[in-house]
Amino acid sequence: MLNAIFAEGLVRARQSALGYCPVEGLLSLRRDIAMRMRNRGVAVDAQHILILSGSTQGIGLVGRFLLNPGDEVVVEVPTYLGAIQTFRALGARVIGVPTDSDGMRVDLLETILARHRPRLIYTLPTFQNPTGVVMSPERRRRLLLLARRYQTPILEDDPYSEVYFEGKQPQPLKSLDTHSQVIYLSTFSKILAPGLRVAWLAAPEPMIERLTLHKQIFDLNTNALGQWTVSEILQRDSLIDNHLAKLRHYYQNKRDLMLQAIRTHLRDAVRVNPPGGGFHLWCRLQGDVRARALLREATREHVAFVIGEPFHVDGGGQQHFRLGFAFPEEEKIEEGVRRIGVALRHLQARRLQREEHPPLHVEHIPMV
Questions:
Q1: Listing from the earlier edge strand, what are the strands of the sheet with 72-77?
Q2: What span, in angstroms and rounded, lies between the C-alpha atoms of 190 and 349?
Q3: Domain 240-354 CATH (choose: 2.40.50.100, 3.90.1150.10, 1.10.10.10, 3.30.200.20)
Q4: What is the pTM of this model?
Q5: DSSP code of 78?
Q6: Domain 2-235 adopts which CATH fold?
C-alpha cells in the first residue's frame, strides 16, 4: 500500500510532503478526517480538527489547556495508564469511577461531579483500554447529560473504534453531543502505522485555535510526510476500506488464537471476557494469586505482560493483567500463553509446598 503511494505521488507533492506545514496540520488531511467523521455522525469541518504527533500529545495538550495543579480529573477504573501518568505529571488529582460490562458506572458519577466539581472527564467508551468494554448507549446519553448539567468537558479517547470484529462500528460519543461538551481524540497509529505519529483532536473552533497555540510551543507542527501519507491513503476510498477489512480479520484471528491458548494453557485459572474489538485481553486471576507474583515467575520463562495495578487509581488491579494480541506473531501468541501457564503452575506448586511444609518455629527453652 505505501509503496504504491510513494511511487505515484511523492515526487509530485514533494513540497507539501517534505516541507513545513501549518501548526494545525495539512488542510487536505483535516478535510479528509472531517469527512470521515461526518460519515460517523459527527458534524465537523476542517477548522474543527487539529493534527497531533500521536494521541498522547492530545491528552497532554487538553490537560495543559484545562487543568491547573490541584485540579481534579475523573477517569474510569481501570483506564489507560498513559492518561493517568499525564494528568498526574500536570499536577492534577485523578479520581476513579468503577466500570463494569457496560462501561463507566455513570450512576456513581453524579456524586463525584457534585462533590468534587472536576475540570475534566476522561473516557474511552469504545473498546476501552485495558478492558475492551464498549459503553452502552444508555450510559453514553446519561454521561452527556451529567456533563452538561455540571458543565464538565469530556475528553473522548477513541483509538480502537475502527478495529471492530462483529456487527457495526460503534458510533463515537461525540456523535450524540449536541452541546459541544466532548473533545474527541483519535489516531492512525492503530490502523496504519504507529511510526507515522499522526493523530487528531476534534473540538469547537475557538478551542482548536487555543490548542494550536499551545501545540506550536512544543513541536511547531506534526511531521508533514506522515500527514501527507495518511491523506493520500484516505483519499483512496477502496484502498483504505480494503485495508481496514483485512486488518479487522487479521486481528480477530489473533484475538481468537489468544483466547484458545488461554483456554488450553490457563483453563479455569484466568477469567476473560472476549472483547468485540481493540488490541487487548483483560484477564483476572482466580483465587488469591496476584498478577505481580505471576509476572515475576513469568519472566523466568522469558515472557512478560502488563500487570493491572498501573491501570488503577484506587490501588486495585492486583489480580488483573493485560495481554496484547496485536503485536506478537501468531506462533508467539500460543507459546507466550503456554509459558504463562508454566509460570502459574510453578507459582501454585511453591505455594502448595509452603502450605504443606510450613517453616518450623522453635520456642526458646530456657537453660536450667
A1: 49-52, 199-202, 182-187, 154-157, 120-123, 72-77, 93-100, 103-104
A2: 40
A3: 3.90.1150.10
A4: 0.92
A5: S
A6: Aspartate Aminotransferase; domain 2 (3.40.640)
Backbone angles phi, psi at 165, to 5 degrees: -110, -25
Report how far residue 171's alpha carbon sits from residue 229's, in angstroms, rounded to the nearest whole number: 26
Per the structure block, which three cell numbers stand in for 124? 474511552
pLDDT in tens, 196-241: 899 999 999 999 999 999 999 888 888 999 999 999 999 987 889 9
The residue type of 330 is E
Instruction: Using pLDDT thresholds of 50, 70 and 90, give the confidence band for residue 1.
Output: low
Q: How many angstroms separate the CA atoms of 281 and 82, rounded?
A: 18
Q: Are strands 120-123 and 72-77 parallel, antiparallel or unpaired?
A: parallel
Q: Work out the angle at residue 186's Cα, subtended by the Cα atoms of residues 121 and 208, and round it to the nearest 5 degrees.
A: 70
User: Can you give the residue ranges of every domain in the chain?
Assistant: 2-235, 240-354
Distance separating the N- and C-terminal Cα atoms of the chain: 89
Pairwise CA distance, residues 311 & 82, whole Å: 9
Mean pLDDT within 171-190: 97
Q: What is the pLDDT of residue 194?
A: 87
Which of the two residues, 368 and 11, has the higher pLDDT score? 11
Task: List the grid coordinates of 238.
Answer: 477502496
Give the three cell numbers for residue 63: 490537560
User: d(Cα 161, Cα 181) in Å, to the nearest integer?
Assistant: 20
Amino acid at 338: R
In 3D, which of 139, 133, 101 has the Cα closest to residue 121? 139
At position 63, the amino acid (one-letter code) is G
Look-up: residue for cell 499551545? 214
